[in-house]
Amino acid sequence: MRITIDPALLLSIVKRNKRDLESAVFRRDFREAAIAVILATIFFCFGLHGGWPLFLLGVMCLFVAGYLVCDRMRQRRKRRDIHDTLRGTVESSLHQVTHQIWLLRNVFWWYLLPFSIGLVALIGSAYWDTIKNYDPGYAPITLLFLGIYAASVVLLYWGIYHLNQWAVRKELLPRKRELENLLKSLAEHNELDD
Amino acid sequence: MDDEFEQIFKRWFDEHKRLLFRIVRIYASSLDEQDDLFQEILLHLWKSVPNFKGLAKETTWIYRVALNTALLWRRSRRRRRKRFRKSIINFEDIPASPADSSSAQENHKLFDQLYKAIRQLPVIDSCVVLMHLEGLGYEDMTKVLGISKNHVGVRLNRAKKALARDLKGLLDEI
């Protein structure tokens, strides 16, 4: 039995897959940038009444979003095409994975710390105002609430940090080993060339 | 311009579909995985068409795209891709051996065993064997893999010995 596959139909499916993939990537990038911009706008608006710590938080949101976007654009430029040699493509993939590992291992410095600066300013400022204008009726509750809020933020940060490290261990490091082995097998027997 | 790219893609598929099926059969085991890998290869092939300027041979280009996709393909991402993809091909319906061979059943068994044996080889050896079976010369293989001719030769000899050992029983039977 001879199987006939219609190239035109196949091509329409491939084009649809390409559109779907590009749309999924765009939606993910847009969502991340949009969330940062919306949050920054909210913080700036509240900052008009609530003071400089909220402005600072807004600035930090934009910093993190900007860092992510710039990093993604830089990595995209460095990526080699799939029609390069196998060695070239593997080297490029290995570089991408190594960079991802670096990004996630240093999530504290470029993601958590900027927000921390804003949150510390906000909580610290609220704490200072409460102490300065001490009201025995409200101050203890306010301070307790601030304490619980600070503890929740620390817990959340701990969770985010460990989730990223888990992703490095579970997904990225095995992938890195796979690529390194592939590159090693491409490099074997090089002494025969001498 | 899009028409021209479409014509190129269709021609590449018509002329090299057997190669693509072989690559998929070797680097993906279940029918589901084969369909997923096949769609990935076609997607990368289509994306590569505008970059093809005729400086490399078409065969070299297609091999590079297909093998790079197969070797870097991640089974773990299949579930994510399945969300927006439907199966398009059932590899059970596609004969492993040429359809017009006279001893179809024996050839079918031989080809199945051959794919299984190639799958057991180290990854680079399997690439070299695949290209050798397709009639590619050492020069073309070096352009696909990015390794020296010497290295290709060593790999091919090693792979041939391993395949001869693995398939000896089957060849005796036939």
N- and C-termini, Cα separation of chain A: 52 Å
CATH fold-level topology of the largest domain in chain B = Rna Polymerase Sigma Factor, Chain: A
Number of strands of chain A: 0
Taking Cα atoms only, what radius of gyration of chain A do you get, to the nearest Å? Answer: 25 Å
Q: What is the mean pLDDT of chain A?
A: 85
Kindly report how far apart the N and C termini of chain B lie.
Answer: 52 Å
How would you sum up this structure in a few lines?
The complex is a heterodimer of chains A (194) and B (174). Chain A is an all-alpha fold.
What does this molecule look like?
The complex is a heterodimer of chains A (194) and B (174). Chain A is an all-alpha fold. Helix content of chain A is 86%, strand content 0%. Chain A has five helices and no strands. Chain A is elongated. In chain B, α1 (2-27) crosses α3 and α1 crosses α5. The longest helix of chain B is centred in the N-terminal third of the chain and has 26 residues, at 2-27. Chain B has helices spanning 2-27, 31-48, 58-72, 78-82, 104-120, 123-133, 138-145, 149-173. The A-B interface holds A 1-3, 5, 7-8, 10-11, 13-15, 17-18, 20-21, 24, 81-90, 93, 171, 175, 182, 185-186, 188-190, 192-193 and B 6, 9-10, 13-14, 17, 39, 42-48, 51-52, 61, 64-65, 67-69, 71-72, 74, 76, 84-85, 88-89, 93-95, 99, 122-124, 127, 143-148, 150-151, 154-155.
What's the arrangement of secondary structure elements?
The complex is a heterodimer of chains A (194) and B (174).
Chain A: H1 7-50, H2 52-78, H3 86-105, H4 107-132, H5 139-187
Chain B: H1 2-27, H2 31-48, H3 58-72, H4 78-82, H5 104-120, H6 123-133, H7 138-145, H8 149-173
Helix pairs in contact in B: 1-2, 1-3, 1-5, 2-3, 3-7, 5-8, 6-8
